[in-house]
């Protein structure tokens, strides 16, 4: 039997991606052996909304950490393989926990990417709601980035203590429920409610496949768990999916 039997004869594919898909691009993950929080557990406090609001030093440090995740970061083989699959005509949607925009940089149609935790591309004023390119905010460091109105600028990402946008989450659940194959790639699957999309997909009959270096809480629901490095696993899976039947028009 083909070891990728679960990638054959499927038309509607959803790929749920976490930080692990971007590590080959030089973007560190959070919980891995070299992850941001593994190397410095105190940094996790920076990602808490209440701490961000309460302390100017926390805000500046938060911006400095995220500034290091910007710059000339390029998509890797996994991002490119997914983009080629989608632009080649496969009915593919990406639900991502990542805020790096690398799926779009790889060439995926922006409307086919649902950014569950927001985007680093912009900052939002907590007073007037105006959005500013993050590069402009980062350029003001080490001074605290502020809006033209004087309000606090916060990267347009979801922090601990904030709710996911209800419309975005509802869309993601509908996509998961309509999937025939749901690939969870490079995520610890420990951050809810996003990780719960795996259960939504499985409950509606999708083949759930987990591609991750470490065990996850959803491995038991999966028809397959792939421990192969993401940079080789995803292109191999995409090659099978590209030949697995009719494409959209």
TrEMBL record:
PROSITE patterns (UniProt xref):
SIRTUIN
Which Gene3D superfamilies does the entry link to?
Answer: SIR2/SIRT2 'Small Domain, TPP-binding domain
- What EC number(s) has UniProt assigned to this enzyme? 2.3.1.286
Query: Which segments of the protein form a coiled coil according to its record?
Result: none
Binding residue positions for Zn(2+): 125, 128, 147, 149
Give the keywords, sorted.
Metal-binding, NAD, Transferase, Zinc
Check the record and name the SUPFAM superfamilies matching this protein: DHS-like NAD/FAD-binding domain
| Every Deacetylase sirtuin-type domain range | 1-249
Its recorded name reads protein acetyllysine N-acetyltransferase
State the species of origin.
Actinocorallia libanotica
